[in-house]
Amino acid sequence: MLADDKIRLRALEPTDLDVLFAWENDASLWAVGSTIAPFSRKQLWNYIENYDNDIFSARQLRFMVEDVESGEAVGMVDLFDFDPVSRRASVGILIDAKFGNKGYGTRALQLLCDYASQAVAMYQLVAFVPVKNEYSRRLFARCKFDETALLKDWIRVGVTYHDVAVYQRVLG
């Protein structure tokens, strides 16, 4: 359920510290999250060390996306803001730019949807995607997410506000 012939979704490991440090401190990505300051290695080490993989208690779940052949982490996918009553969660995905356009995102998102449906019995997933991020918009559309709303001036990047498209997928 968490792997195919090219990738596997796996738990965070201590060996992920350097790549997590690079991704979490990439200021160009902060606008799509809620980060406004860099993380220290110590903060990220504590996060890995104390990570709770029980989505019902933590209300979130993170997987590293790993290339099966090389064993290299190529990205990560998250379920967050989990609502166990309505059985829905938000989705976040990051694929390192050097691994872009190789199918990793599509495979990871599909495996995550399968896991959410089968293992957690989720009913629905939602993603908030900046309108200017055509790559992510195509990714969610490819993975059977429907664009259901447009949030005007939803995120701020510097001094400019940007629209965000809402994508939903009913898993069943």
Describe how the helices and strands are arranged:
Elements: E1 7-10, H1 17-24, H2 41-49, H3 55-58, E2 61-67, E3 73-83, E4 88-95, H4 104-118, E5 124-130, H5 134-142, E6 146-157, E7 160-170
Parallel strand pairs: 4-5
Antiparallel strand pairs: 1-2, 2-3, 3-4, 5-7, 6-7
Q: How would you describe what is shown here?
A:
By secondary structure, this protein is an alpha+beta fold. The chain has one domain (7-170): Aminopeptidase (3-Layer(aba) Sandwich). It is 26% helix and 35% strand. A hairpin with a 2-residue loop joins strand 6 (146-157) and strand 7. It starts with 6 loop residues before the first strand and ends with a strand.
Low-pLDDT residue intervals, each spanning 5 or more residues: none
Look at the structure and give the CATH class.
Alpha Beta
Q: Order of SSEs, N→C?
A: EHHHEEEHEHEE
The oligomeric state is single chain
Shape: globular
Query: In CATH terms, what is the architecture?
Result: 3-Layer(aba) Sandwich
**Count of folded domains:** 1
Q: What is the average per-residue confidence, as pLDDT, rounded to a whole number?
A: 92
Helices, by number, come to 5
Give the CATH superfamily: Gcn5-related N-acetyltransferase (GNAT)
What is the topology, as strand order, of the major beta sheet?
1-2-3-4-5-7-6
What would the CATH topology be? Aminopeptidase
Task: State the end-to-end CA separation.
Answer: 17 Å
What integer value in Å does the Rg equal? 16 Å
- How many beta strands in the DSSP annotation? 7
What is the beta-strand fraction? Answer: 25-35%
Helicity range of the residues?
A: 25-40%
Describe the main β-sheet briefly.
Answer: 7 strands, mixed
